[in-house]
Amino acid sequence: MKVLFVISGNGNKIAPFVELQKRNLEELGVEVEYFLINKHGFWGYFSLLARYFKTVRKNKPDIIHAHYGISGLFALTQICKPVIISYIGSDILGTIIKNISYFTMLFSKSSIFVSQSLLDNMPFKLKYFVKIEYGIDLNSFYPIDKTISRIKLGLDVNKQFCLFPSLKTRPEKNFELANKAINKVGGIEIIEIGGTLPLEQLNLIFNACDFMLLTSLHEGGPQVVFEAMATNLPIISTDVGVVRMSLAGLEGCYICTYELADVITKIETVLLFNGRTNGRDRIMDLKLNSKLKANEIKSLYANIIQLNGASNMKMKR
Q1: How many CB atoms lie within 10 A of CB 258?
Q2: Are residues 13 and 131 in the same domain?
Q3: SS3 of residue 220 by DSSP
Q4: pLDDT, tens only, 40-98
Q5: Do 172 and 202 belong together in one domain?
Q6: What is the C-alpha to C-alpha distance for residues 256 and 150, in angstroms, rounded to an integer?
C-alpha cells in the first residue's frame, strides 16, 4: 500500500504529529511519501501544481492523504487517485478557511476529524465522516523528574514555570488573558512553545513546568493537552475541544472560564496542588496511543482503496 501525504511544509518543517503518523504507518508496512506545499498564497500553490501532478504520476500512490483543509483543496486538483483529508481544528473553527474545508469535504473520499468535538460541531454530516485522533507517542512523551528536566534545559530549579503551549502572536490562543493572570499571581515565569521543536526537548519542557495554561478561544483536540497528560503535567484549560471530557475527574487538572478572576483562582489552586497528575493512565484508558490510531488509519485506507477499485471496475464495464 502506497500513500502520498500532502501537507503544508513552509520552511520544510513538518508538524511532529504528522511525522509520527507517517512513522507508525510505515511500521505497519505502509509506504508513505511527502509532498510539501512550501509556498504561500494562490500563485504559490498554483506554481506547485506541475510538480504535484508529476509526483503523483511517478509515485503511483494508492491513496492521497492531505492534512488540513487547504492542503486538501490542493490535493483534489488531481482526479486520478482517491483523496482523504484530515481536519485538525483551525481549518474548521476559523472563519474564511472553514468554507474552503466544507467544500473539500464534498469531494474527498473520507473526512477525518481529529476529535469528537470537531465532528459534533459540523453543520452537516456525511456518511464517510470519521473520528480518528492523531494519537500520542508514549515513547516520546513520558514523565521525567522535574529537577532533572530543568537542569538539562538550563532552567532555575527554584522558580515556578507555566507552560503556554503556543505562540503568543496567534490571536485565537488568547495569550493576553494568560499573561494577565500570571502577572496578577506573580512569581511565575511563562515558557512559550510554538513551531516544531524536537520531541526530546518538548518532553523536557513539559516535565520542567509546574503546570500548563491553555486559554484558547477554540481548539480541535487539542493535541498538546494529550501530550501534557502523557507526562502527568497539571493542566488549566478553557472548555475547548475535548478538554473537559479528557480531564474529567483528573486530580490536578482544572477547567477555567474566560474571566480573569477565575483563571487566577485556578492558577492558585494548581500551585497548592503542587504535584503531578495521573494523565498518562487516562491517555491509555482513552486508547490514544498513536500506534492504535495508525491501525485505524490503515484500515480506512484499505476500505477506500477497495471501494475505489470496485468503482473503477464498474466504470470499465
Answers
A1: 12
A2: yes
A3: coil
A4: 888 888 999 999 999 999 999 999 999 999 999 999 999 999 999 999 887 887 667 88
A5: yes
A6: 27
CB 233, CB 207: distance < 8 Å? yes
User: Is residue 132 within 8 Å of 194, Cβ to Cβ?
Assistant: no
Q: Round the average pLDDT of the chain to a whole number and report it.
A: 91
Prediction pTM value: 0.83
Using one digit for the tens of pLDDT, what is the confidence trace for 157-200? Answer: 999 999 999 888 888 899 999 999 999 999 999 999 876 788 89
CATH of the domain at 41: 3.40.50.2000
Is 246 found in the same domain as 199? yes
- Burial level of 121, CB count in 10 A (0-12/13-18/19+)? middle
Residue 239 covered by a domain: yes
Q: Are 10 and 16 in contact (CB under 8 A)?
A: no
What is the distance between the alpha carbons of residues 262 and 232, in angstroms, rounded to a whole number? 23
Alpha-helical (H) ranges within 38-95 are: 41-47, 49-59, 69-75, 90-93
Distance CA 143, CA 228 (A): 10
- Residue 252 belongs to a domain: yes
The number of distinct structural domains making up the chain is 2
Q: Which domain holds residue 163?
A: 146-285
One domain for residues 93 and 161: no
Residue 140, in any domain of the structure: no
Spatial separation of the C-alpha atoms in residues 140 and 276, rounded to whole Å: 18
Residue 141, in any domain of the structure: no
